[in-house]
Request: fold
Amino acid sequence: MSDIVLLDFGGTLDGDGVPWSLRFFAFYREAGGRLPAREFEAAFRETDRALARLPGVRILGFRATIEVQASLLAALLPPGSPDLRPVTERFYQDSLATVERNRAVLAELRAAGHRLGVIANFSGNLARCLDELGLTACFETIADSGVVGVSKPDPRIFRAALDALGGAGEDHCWMVGDNPDADIRPATALGCSTAWVAPRARPLPPGLQPTVRLTSLAGLPDAIRDHERVDTRCG
Reply:
């Protein structure tokens, strides 16, 4: 029986399978932004790197992180781009709503006896963000790449999370995330069960073989229970 569930943050717990860059882009376009998706994505990735280098980033909470990243993004957008302050507020409120829906999922998993952890490519302030969102008590370990020193898909960050939970074997672990290359492929290679969270319209990437595919975290407890029943029957 799998007793550890590791979850990504930044598209999974707060976005139901839609990465920050894509959610920000959708709100930007609704506000009248005209930058093509590829150019917007490149600019957003640059803000990820700039945020990680920012002095004092480790003291930023969730809202402050979003606001600082938006200010970095605004400086990279072309003249005439829409004001990002309303875009940022929409992103923040959408994130809060998703976190609130997923809070019940985390409670259900814990009630079923699962031990939970977070493993994310972040800027060293993930613990502050989770604390602001009232999620810290849900998790026994937090593996933030900015703290651990290695990023997904490096297997060492997965190992760090498992070691923090007592060195449990990968065959007793689920990895839940939205990124095929950072979350699902490396966890599969390690022997973990995997749940890929993505919108229904998103095609399955070539060669990706998650244990289950979900359109939101709401289906995760049932998916794990169903998988364990199958394992029990096969055993």
